[in-house]
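Late entry, evening session. Most of the bench is empty. Finally got around to the prediction I had been postponing all week. Sequence below, unchanged from the version circulated by S.P.
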Amino acid sequence: MFGLFFFILFTPGVSEFLCTSPDLEMSYTFCDSTAHAFMFNLTPCSTMNRPVWKAALSWIPRSDITFLKVVFNVWYEGARALHWKEVVCSGADDEYVECSTLKGETIATEFDIKGARITFPKGDYNIILQGFSDDSENNMVICLNFTMIVKQDSF
């Protein structure tokens, strides 16, 4: 298993390399120009015969997380392949303990990315992950732009 543990006080506009393997390369940038305290770890760095990716995230938000809406967009070779929205924190009876995080506190969590069960065709993927502190999607608290290059077909 290959993973890259990465902590950063991010310099805006600079692409950060996550991992590389014979079949996959991943990197990301932040969409905005504000520095972030952020860590992301992904194992294994492969799309071949991997039913689940393990991810770890550490982040110090710039505002209280009482409401959080996540917007996830995936483009494959320039065409939109997926658009998904989810209210993760609503402020009442939230499933995730991270939903009560206050500005300046550290969110540290681990989770599975089960989408790795999908067979990714060879090619270039652009993944935009946005987090908003309001339902109208006007107040962005974080935005990540991932680049994923699948070097070989897994089928």
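Two things to note before I forget:
The CA atoms of residues 19 and 134 lie 32 Å apart.
Residues 1-12 have pLDDT under 50 and may be disordered.
Will write this up properly tomorrow.
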